[in-house]
Every structure is written in C-alpha cells, then in structure tokens.
C-alpha cells in the first residue's frame, strides 16, 4: 500500500498526491463507522486500483485541524491584510491571531497593496505593524501590483503546508499569481457571504508552491469565539503573558482588577492601546455569547 497527502476534496472524491502520482480516491466505509472525515492536508494510506484511481484505507494522526477552512496538518497561517481597499483591519488581525495561537500554528502577517499608500500613510502603517514585530510576529509589506517584496514570502513556504487567510479582496490570489504565474488564479472574485446551511461550491485545494503546499481559501475571516473561554483569551496576547506575574491578583483578567501590571503597561505606552481595547472587546463578545447560549 502507498501513502500520500490529500490535496483536494470534491464531490465525494479525495485527490491524493503521492510524489508524481495524482490519484482520485474514494474513502472506504470504515470512515463512516469511525465518524472520521478525511480532510485536505491529511496524510493517508491508500490502495491503488490502477494508475489514477484508488481507495483511502487509513488516515495518519493529525497534527491539527481547522474547521473553517477545513484543512488538516497546517504548519503556518499567512494572514493577509490590505493596507487599503479594504483598509487595514487590526481588530480582525487580533482575532485571527488568537485562533491561530489556539491551534499552535506558526504565523506570518502580510500587509499588501502598499502601492496604494502615500508616504505618510506608509509610515503610519509601519508604526502600527511595529507593535506586532515587537510582540514577536513576522510581518512583511508587499505589493502584487508593483511586485514589491513578494518573493520575500518564498523562504516561508518551503516544505510545509501554509494556509492563506484573509478577507475576500485583500489580494491573496494576486500574491500567489506573482509567486507562481502558472497558477493563474482568478482574482477580484468577490465571494458573497453564504449563510449557514446554504449550498456553497467553495472548496479548499492545496497548491504546490516552492516545494511546499499552500491553500488559497475564500473566507476564513468570519470567526467567532464559541470555543474560547473568557479566562483563556489573555494567554493569547504574548505581551500580556510576559507581564502577568506583576498583577496583584492571581488569575487577573486585566479588566476591572486593581493593581494590574497589564493596565499599567498600557498607561505607560508599553502595550499598544489598540491591542488592549480589542482584548476587552473580545471578552465582552464571549460573555455575550455565553449569556445567549445559557438562556
Ligand atoms: N493596487 C493594488 N491592487 C491589488 C494588489 N493586489 C491585489 N489587488 C487588487 O485587489 C483586488 C482583489 O485581489 P484578489 O487577489 O482577487 O484578492 P483575494 O480575494 O484576497 O484573493 C483585485 O482587483 C486586484 O487587482 C496590489 O498589490 N495593489
Ligand atoms: Mg482569491
Ligand atoms: Zn492584570
């Protein structure tokens, strides 16, 4: 039996890449019994019926999995934001960073369309992003239009599975087309919001790129917090974690508590106020959700 990775799932078929081989597989009934669903990114054992068709027999253990988009074994999330059109959305960035941290996936932040910025606006955004660099995140500034710094992405892509995340229209597909023109991805395709339960033709596919794999996914920007507890959010803000020993109260939520080292650091401009405000907004969001569910 052979092994490979699922690079596409569509209409009941799983497409397995095994070196040069590309095999269209069905999953055996045993997955239904085990309540297991193969995902794009899964390492699988398959049985080939012939050169191009086969059956998936087993899944290897997963390192992680995302439900939106449905991908397994992700090494890295590349969070793409446009500097303009649409404007840089730091609230969404902070939210995505929490979700990524929960899954223990590496993160790269890309701010693209910088050609749309005048020098003064460029400086402002550079300062805003410096906050993230100081916390320890990698940040790249790119323009697909002017081909600025797009190749700086290459070293991040080799030998791993990356997922590109970001709102529709920020320039994800355009970046990939510059990196690998043969991909010829459609750009400017606005994916309209699809309600729960409605049929969607969206699918995730891993594209080979610089000896790694990348998933260009529509969506993955509307996240909610059902899975995070109020007491846990603070652990996903590295600049809070490094200071929490200084808080008077053990278990301080850095909210209403007195003698809080985090609030003190915000007052001293050592922690960005935007990050702290977003943190409080997240707490409020989760508390509201909880009230809604407990009713
Ligand atoms: N000015 C400018 N426009 C860009 C850039 N990258 C993408 N765009 C435009 O932004 C729109 C959305 O790009 P697309 O790659 O489809 O975004 P996606 O939905 O995130 O995949 C298209 O009209 C692109 O031409 C860029 O670097 N500069
Ligand atoms: Mg796209
Ligand atoms: Zn505190």
UniProtKB/TrEMBL annotation:
Annotated GO molecular function terms are: GTP binding; GTPase activity; metal ion binding; rRNA binding
Give, as one word, the top-level EC class.
hydrolase
Look up keyword Nucleotide-binding and say if it applies: yes
The CP-type G domain sits at 63-223
Localization terms from the record: Cytoplasm
Q: Where does Zn(2+) bind?
A: 247, 252, 254, 260
Biological process GO terms, please? Answer: ribosomal small subunit biogenesis
EC number(s) per UniProt? 3.6.1.-
At which positions is GTP bound? 112-115, 166-174
**Which protein family is named in the record?**
Belongs to the TRAFAC class YlqF/YawG GTPase family. RsgA subfamily.
Q: How does it assemble?
A: Monomer. Associates with 30S ribosomal subunit, binds 16S rRNA.
Q: Which NCBIfam families match?
A: ribosome small subunit-dependent GTPase A (TIGR00157)
Record's protein name: Small ribosomal subunit biogenesis GTPase RsgA
- Organism this protein belongs to: Shouchella lonarensis
